[in-house]
Amino acid sequence: MTQRKSTTKMVAYPSFSIVPERDINKRPVLETRHLGIEFGGLKAVEDFNLTIGSTEIAGLIGPNGAGKTTVFNLLTKVYQPTTGTVLIDGKETSGMNTVQANRLGVARTSQNIRLFGNMSVEDNVRIGLHNQIPYNMFAGILRLPGYWKQEKKQHEKALELLSIFDMQDMASAKAGSLPYGAQRRLEIVRALATNPKILLLDEPAAGMNPHETEELMDNITKIRDQFQIAIMLIEHDMNLVMGICEGICVLNYGRIIAKGTASEIQSNPTVIEAYLGKKKEG
Amino acid sequence: MKRKISKTFINNLITYAIVIIAFFICKLALSGDIEGFKMSRSLKGQLIPICVYIVMAVSLNLTVGISGELSLGHAGFMSIGAYAGIVASQWLGSAFPEANIDVVRLIAALISGGIAAGVAGFLIGIPVLRLRGDYLAIVTLAFGEIIRNLINCLYVSVEGGTLHTGFLLTSPLPGKKIIAGPMNTSGIDKLASFDAAFVVVLIALFVVLNLINSRSGRAIMASRDNRIAAESMGVNVTKYKMMAFVTSAALAGIAGAMYGLNTSIEPKKFGFDTSILILVFVVLGGIGSIRGSVIAATLLTVLPEVLREFGSYRMLVYAIVLILVMLARNSVFVKQILSIVTGCIKLIFKRSRRGEAS
């Protein structure tokens, strides 16, 4: 395994990069090199090269079935890549599992909500705090002082995180009984609780009305500013993507077809073709 | 938020209270101080088994209800605990024949039973709990049968502080035999008592309830609800499933040790039937409900004794009662009645509290 020692020379891969200028001299939080995965001969993702700056909001878009969620699964180590590597915060991740990737600083939400439906809202966030505010099993069973101290800390931290989305009043409600939009927000809070360096959001605005989407856009920017983390999102709502993403990466048939800023992407003929089809000749 | 914590706290308190009150009622009935309130002989003999089965049901609920893995070999852990406990207590007894150390022997038996079953659970868990799916059910089913057959061939005797063990023997071992293959254990000092069994029940409840309401317990339940989400939150699913399973096995071992020091036992006792019986307690009491397990284990252990007057139709009636209880548990009508009753109780509490305040 090769560990990247240099922390400043990220301009070494300019062609992979859609990093905004303020992050250019910092170590990129995420870097993929020739990442690819095959499912029984089908190349779902191929030669995926991307660099994301430490406080960037990046968008990953593409038509249905382009392999966007597969990319997220590769980044979170749910799938192991068949080719290429993922570097998280400069560290090589090959052979790691999801838990280890999370400890390195990758947290995600999923397309179809994966909350712990039978547990309360607060307990869901506390699962996110699992490795942040730990104590061991015996302290828990015997109710040692460590238990009370850490439980109190967890409680306070959970409420603090819930207050980002004004959800502290729902803390004792059952997570499965929340309305759809609130469940999506809770998933983001839960992912934030793991203290990530990069947050991957898989269709965060799906099922939200325009008003809620607007609020979400504000919140995503707010989270980035407050926590100083990078955020990468998959989204079909172009208003959201074009509105807040500093760098956008377009995927089609598992390959990157364009990278750039919102205006660059909007005028890119390949992207228009991928979404709308080819202009008829003549 | 504070309200929710106190809610689980009150729930746990009710569970403890039920057990403690039941214990004192039994104590009162045993003493026979009150005229006409006396425990029948057959029920008296059932007291320790009831405690044992409560611990078994509570511990199995940890695996089945909280951790969401089906285990069909819980009696196997019970038998490991029982035989380990017998060996430990008998060895201590023969090593220090003069000393009056019954309590120490009992505690040593319980601890060694728990450790032995816990180790067995750990060994099974290593390969199985990494897998997703119902593999644990299959493997524990096989494990229960393997253990039963192994103990069928196990011979242990004790002589002046030394243990002699043998396997598939034709000639008898020297000294006093304590485990004799398929035959009943004999010459075991009855160290178990109702008081001790009650303490074990309390310990089991304490461990399980506190585990559930802690960081580890939440991780166990998160792994049950959604494995992928738990993993991407940094929860090591295999570790927490293992934690639940080993704790469950160890508690079953402790219960088994208590059982083995109460009556003479034979390997046949710990077969598939017993595993299913305990699973019935858990399912009937409500999967994931610890208090339900306690109540179901108690009632269903007493029930066959109560039904003795039906003679040979006893088990038939038992089965019918089980089916009726199952139907009642799922019927809307019964649920409504229950909710009305609990609503009334809450109202009365509120009124009385308001009365105190004013």
Brief summary of the model shown:
The complex is a heterodimer of chains A (282) and B (358). Chain A has 282 residues and is of the alpha/beta class.
Runs of chain B with pLDDT <50, length 5+?
none
CATH fold-level topology of the largest domain in chain A: Rossmann fold
CATH class category name of chain B: Mainly Alpha
What is the count of distinct domains of chain B? 1
Helix content of chain B: over 70%
Shape of chain A: globular
Task: Describe the protein's topology.
The complex is a heterodimer of chains A (282) and B (358).
Chain A: E1 30-39, E2 42-52, E3 57-61, H1 68-75, E4 83-88, E5 91-92, H2 98-104, E6 106-108, H3 121-128, H4 137-142, H5 145-162, H6 180-193, E7 198-202, H7 210-227, E8 230-234, H8 238-244, E9 247-252, E10 255-260, H9 262-266, H10 269-276
Helix pairs in contact in A: 3-5, 3-6, 5-6
Chain B: H1 2-31, H2 41-66, H3 74-95, H4 102-128, H5 135-152, E1 154-159, E2 162-167, E3 176-180, H6 194-212, H7 215-225, H8 227-232, H9 237-260, H10 272-285, H11 290-306, H12 314-330, H13 332-357
Antiparallel strand pairs in B: 1-2, 1-3
Helix pairs in contact in B: 1-6, 2-6, 2-9, 2-10, 2-11, 3-4, 3-5, 3-9, 4-9, 6-9, 7-9, 10-11
